[in-house]
Amino acid sequence: MKALITEFLNYISVERGLAKNTLMAYEHDLTAYIDYLENVAGVRTPDAITHEQIGAYMMVQKKAKMEATSICRGLAAVRMFHRFMVREAFAKEDPTGLVDTPRLWKRIPDVLTQAEVMAMINAANGRDAQSVRDQAMLELFYASGLRVSELAALRLEDVNLETGIVICMGKGSKERLIPVGGKAREALEKYLSKARLKILSGKSVAEIFVSRLGRKMSRQSIWKTVKSYARKANIKKTIKPHTLRHTFATHLLEHGADLRSVQEMLGHSDISTTQIYTHVDKERLRAVHKQFHPRG
């Protein structure tokens, strides 16, 4: 059945124009899925796969303490794979129609307080070119809610400092416009006017954020930079690649933004993905009530 994974990846690459990272994630998820079916469930053909086996596979992932979001992402890949097999006559039926998405497994993401975000940004205060770059990166990250990969891929032509608009090419090659505030624009202007040129030392790079070697910064290097400033700011929470993105969405909703606007800025195709941030806000309100109510 593994040969069908290659057929499927070729198909969605052409039909949907998905990003390379997405295709790699699908390949990883589907390879693990087929390995389980063949080596644990003893399944050898697509038509022998049942929805009970798919459910059992998801429970194995849960017991292995996989993130619920990763399990849901894997299930999405499995659904697409089975639909493809039916469409191309590799299988007669799609067993995923009876499999429920484990929405209740989804954990509320960790977010930073406004004070913690400011502490991180202030930790990057410095006159050297790298500090100026890092402060601009943190300001833009928090102001835009971009994914780490999107931030790494952002080019000079994608940012209009006059209008304060960032053009982002997100998942599935979908373009979206994101407004950024005055603080991020100010930090970016400071970085782009002198610090970036100093780091590049005459080299030419299309992307905005560049490494000390004068190359495009990778996703891993941006994430490590964010984590290092969290440590400098003495933040004890676990910092993950999407922490500032989660924080961006949560703070917007806390201050009265409507869910549809936040969905658009985050680039979510389904508003149910954005709705998890309303739960974050409820948890915050519950914590405030418990702390300050006399009978909390």
Question: Which key terms come to mind for this protein?
Answer:
single chain, 296 residues, mainly alpha, DNA polymerase, domain 1, hpI Integrase, Chain A, 2 domains, three-stranded antiparallel beta sheet, 3 strands, 4% strand
Indicate the topology.
Layout: H1 2-16, H2 20-39, H3 51-63, H4 68-87, H5 114-123, H6 129-144, H7 148-153, E1 159-160, E2 165-169, E3 175-179, H8 182-200, H9 219-232, H10 243-254, H11 259-266, H12 271-274, H13 276-292
Antiparallel strand pairs: 1-2, 2-3
Helix pairs in contact: 1-2, 2-4, 5-6, 5-9, 6-8, 6-10, 10-13
Report what the structure shows.
The chain is 59% helix and 4% strand. By secondary structure, the chain is mainly alpha-helical. The protein folds into two domains: 2-105, DNA polymerase, domain 1; 114-291, hpI Integrase, Chain A, CATH 1.10.443.10. It has a three-stranded antiparallel beta sheet, with no helix packed on it. Strand 1 (159-160) and strand 2 form a beta hairpin. The longest helix is centred in the first third of the chain and has 20 residues, at 20-39. The model has no long low-confidence stretch (mean pLDDT 87).
